[in-house]
Amino acid sequence: MAEVGKGVNAGKLASNVQKRLTRAQEKGVRGGLGGGCDEFGISFQTLPGYIHTFLEKSTADTAFIKPSREKARVMQKLGKADETKDTAFEEQVANFNKQLMCVSAAMHECSKRLHDCLAEMYDPEWFGKEEVDSIAEDTDLLWQDFHEKLTDNALLSMDTYLGQFPDIKGRIAKRERKLVDFDSARHHFASVQKGKKKDEAKIAKAEEDLGRAQKVFEEINYDLQEELPTLWNSRVGFYVNTFRSVAGLEEKFHRDMGKINQNLSDIMTKLEEQRLAK
Q: Which domain, by its residues, includes 98?
């Protein structure tokens, strides 16, 4: 990172920062982010939304003086400034988990009660009594296995993917804070330079503070510009792996369940044949 040299003015500094941000954004576009956020922004207000907001702000004129952090927080609490909420995606994930696990558990319970009812009303002298009891046990074990594999293969991978979000969101928030610090230092440096009485010591100190704030902001800004497009594009692989895993588990489960149900059907057919033969 280039240090701020003596004699640099605020306008030139802002211009240099603007050029760096523009180049970083162009690199992000080439990395695949492009306008993808606009396609999905109507329903994603979480990390993709953060990415969308971040890239928009990166191209803004950094000469614009940001409000202080305290003022921004007050404005948000008063409802006079928007505040990004990261709830929509978590809610959708919670719904997905709930649908998978609750539906699986409910169907398992229904299946168990059905076989309990069959076992209770099935007379001991009827054909296939032992086989019917064995089928009930096999069905229960099959449901348990499906439930466990669903948790291991689908939901845990989702938890791993979501585990990236807190760190990235924290760094995005830090980037916003450092941008406020950078703007504040730039504004102070410009004010000191324009003062009626030139105080070289104050100017030098303000210039040093500005260079430090610029360096900190540019470093975190550069890192995020590198990482966010990759994270955004990784959602495709996540969706593919998650739903392919769920589909594979369900396909195997229903195939094995079909064999068990076929055995039960064959027993019922033989029981009916014995009844008619009497």
A: 88-277
